[in-house]
Amino acid sequence: MRALIPTGRTGALVELGTASEPVPGPGEALVAVEAFSLNRPDFLYLAAGQGAYRPGIDAVGTVERAAADGSGPKAGQRVVLHLPGGGAAAERVAVPPGRLAVVPDGLETTVAAALPLAGMVALRLLRAAGDVRGRRLLATGVTGGVGLFLVQLAVAAGASVTAVARPDDPWQHLIEAGAKVIHTVEEAATGAYDVVLESVGGRTGSQAALKLRTGGLFLWFGQAGAEPIELDFFRLFEGGQGLTLRHFVHTEGGPDDSRDMAELLRLASSGQLRVELGHRGDWADTAAVLEKLARGRLKGKAVLTISA
């Protein structure tokens, strides 16, 4: 079957090639893939030369053959799928039922394909933050797919959200979603926030900790800038800013993503969750789109269709 294959070449990380046909286990469905979205881990794994990693963490397709043990969606049903190990950028893929959810009638394939990873990170981050009604949130590194979902979900839950975005990054969509946008973390008032959601690292992440109120929560969910955060005990002590630091990993809930994906599909289908698509195209364009993703120049998600 046709699939996207890693090349190991900078600037052209993947190309169309062939891969072995998947052989589903008794608890796996065979899905014919229609479209897949790209996520930052796709680029990171490919750029790092992580073995035979093939892209495609999130996708939409049709169940060609249901799981032999009777679990999960039935043959002919349209599904969204999430494969943390990649490989969905292919004509067919074997998927366990815990990584599948049925797509509601009327929801566009491109919208559904953009939801799983970014949406689940946002959904689970807010759960980790607790009840955010009436609370003030400061978020860094949220101009991509996760950020838009996070802002929408937080605002809908009653939170006030301030997002830190560089002037040359795409950020207007965050304002449209209900956030206030500032361009440096220094613009945020010291001690003004109940929760910091941090995913940049370096100076930005380190300074963000100083913006928490005493007893606030620092949720650390990424390090996009590659530099680690540095917390100065004595500086925090002088400001009286005792805080709780939590290293957030979105996979802590285990291998069953079906309920969270179903919730995201419901919200998108009812118009309560908007997906920003920065690119729609044929999967032959994947290498070029990965480079745009790496430079942070995509406003929203990229979805590629598997052509006949």
From TrEMBL:
The keyword Oxidoreductase applies. Keywords: NADP, Oxidoreductase. Residues 11-304 form the Enoyl reductase (ER) domain. It comes from the Bacteria. The keyword Oxidoreductase applies. Gene3D superfamilies: Medium-chain alcohol dehydrogenases, catalytic domain (3.90.180.10), NAD(P)-binding Rossmann-like Domain (3.40.50.720). One of its GO terms (molecular function) is oxidoreductase activity, acting on NAD(P)H. Pfam families: ADH_N, ADH_zinc_N_2. InterPro entries: ADH-like_N (IPR013154), ER (IPR020843), GroES-like_sf (IPR011032), NAD(P)-bd_dom_sf (IPR036291). This is NADPH:quinone reductase-like Zn-dependent oxidoreductase. SMART domains: PKS_ER.
